[in-house]
Amino acid sequence: MTDPEAIVDAVREEVGTVLIGNEDVVEGLAISMLTGGHVLLEGVPGVAKTTIANLFARTTGLDYQRIQMTPDVLPADITGTHIYRENVGEFELQRGPIFANIVVADEINRATPKTQSALLEAMQEQTVTIEGDTLELPRPFMVIATQNPIEQEGTFELPEAQRDRFQLKYIVDLPPRAEETELLRRFDSNPGLGPDSVEQTVSGDELLDARETVSKIHVDEKIHEYILDIVAETRETSVTAHGASPRASLAFLNAGKARAAIHGREYVIPDDIKSLAPNVLIHRLILGTEAELSGRSRREVVEEILESVTPPRNVESESTVADTSE
User: Locate the AAA+ ATPase domain: which residues (predicted)?
Assistant: First the structure.
């Protein structure tokens, strides 16, 4: 099975045997997995941020490691180090938990900036340097980080360079009453329900093949211009102090391809870009004084930007003709 739509449908269905709601988050994880990206999940305690990551990892059958971030975690605790073995009289490399397919950095903002920066090379280069030796990380490789937005004491806000490494950010909200009711019923009838209850639905090789399929999705020049117009507006609007970087443009491009493939299309449409805009931009924008004083959120600013940029028309039909002519 290498069809991205079939893969994500299978993962979503299996995850749904435990998880209630948050289908958009599961889709976002799949988008990043299919494009080599990373995801930041933010939400109050108890909304299943870590469980979502664990369920996703188990259904994909990939090697999964969870790192509980605290102020006393050191960079070597993540990347690994050389340990002296007295019985053989030499140093041996002890690899850290970063050497996994899916790495969950739980409560990443509790780690110090020095420890947070240990993830930078891994997220960008998919390599780790330990005492001068550069080592390749497994493929596929993905970081899923979680953070709690309400606690300030004992936390360290992610620097802009770190946030920019995350392709997408999702806010995991409290569930509606109907979903929470179903949650109670489901766990009342099956108290042992959890990540161990799901089964693998896809292999790592199939995911890598699906990545190749996603990379071939057609993107019209009008879509390129639409992406650039949105990103340019984040830089030019008076409500932001700093807009999105070129990495955000690439995030739009790659995530848009994956979303198109997941929804059964061979080409990207403006709705792909528009629907992804909040997840691509909310963690990248730095609001200016005007927005801060007016109490506007980053999501509201993104919505204003989308309203100010006119999406292209007739992209679908033109892309279909282009594909047919080939």
Answer: 35-176
CA 37 remoteness from chain centre = 6
32/163 same-domain check: yes
How many domains, in total, are found in the chain?
A: 2
For residue 152, what pLDDT is reported?
A: 65
Contact 263, 275 (CB under 8 A): no
What is the span of the domain harbouring residue 303?
216-325
What pLDDT is attached to residue 143? 96
- What CATH code is carried by the domain that includes residue 98? 3.40.50.300
- Asked if 38 and 57 sit in the same domain, the reply is yes
Which pLDDT does position 319 carry in this prediction?
Answer: 44
Whole-angstrom Cα distance, residue 160 to residue 133? 27
CA atoms of 280 and 258, how far apart (whole Å): 14
Give pLDDT, residue 27.
Answer: 96
Residue 290 burial (CB count, 10 A):
13
Q: For position 1, what pLDDT does the model report? A: 57
Do residues 236 and 151 both lie within one domain? no
Geometric angle at alpha carbon 309, from 307 and 312, rounded to 5°: 115
- How far is the CA of 30 from the CAs of 15, 39, 80, 132, 272, in angstroms? 12, 10, 28, 34, 15
